[in-house]
Amino acid sequence: MSTVQRTIRFTLNGEAVAADVPTHWNVVELLQNRFGLFGARESCGQGLCGCCTVLVNGNAVSGCLYLAAFVHGAEVTTIEHGAAGRELDAVQQAFIEAGAFQCGFCTPGFVLMTRQLLDEKPDPTEDDIRHYLSGNLCRCAAYPEIVAAVKLAAQKRRAGQGR
Ligand code: FES
Ligand code: FES
Q1: Which ligand is nearest to the CA of 50?
Q2: Cα–ligand 1 centroid distance for 10 (angstroms)
Q3: Element (DSSP H or E) covering residue 55
Q4: Ligand 1 neighbourhood includes 137 CB (under 6 angstroms)
Q5: H or E stretch at 16
Q6: Could you tell me the domains of the chain?
Q7: What number of other Cβ atoms are within 10 A of residue 159's Cβ?
Q8: For residue 135, which atom of ligand 1 is closest to its CA?
Q9: Which of 23, 63, 139, 147 could form a disulfide with 28 if both were Cys (CB 3.0 to 4.6 A apart)?
Q10: How confident is the prediction for the chain on average, in pLDDT?
Q11: How far apart are CA 39 and CA 82, in angstroms?
Q12: What is the pLDDT of residues 88-134, one digit of tens each?
């Protein structure tokens, strides 16, 4: 049986791109197989862990469940955005300073979700942080440090230290 393909055009980390994709592919397959981007990784494959998080038009989605064809015309941001020789943003810097990871497998998802949180709530309460990050799981259980990192990132942003 031949695979049905579709050409999609979208913006990926600020650049206009196009790709031919099988219609059953999800966004993780699209990013890995067509663009060599492995920051969003599939773990549970069921929308439960957040390891596959990417931003579509600024909103965090589970790349394991989101069909690649649905990003046609959209703006997609991955953890690799801005990584090419540029400085880390406030959220990435805060995660490092707070030691908010061990193996790092979950970290891209947490960073992207934190960006969305701080875009919507620049001064989040602890409840806000726990609510926004409730869809992201860390098997190393670095949760206390992650919450501390989000608070630190919020402070850095409010102080104008990176986006
Ligand atoms: S791999 Fe997508 S939510 Fe777990
Ligand atoms: S740092 Fe290992 S899963 Fe979160």
Answers
A1: 1
A2: 22
A3: strand 53-56
A4: no
A5: strand 15-22
A6: 5-77 (3.10.20.30), 90-158 (1.10.150.120)
A7: 9
A8: 3
A9: 63
A10: 94
A11: 13
A12: 889 999 999 999 999 999 999 999 999 999 999 999 999 999 999 99
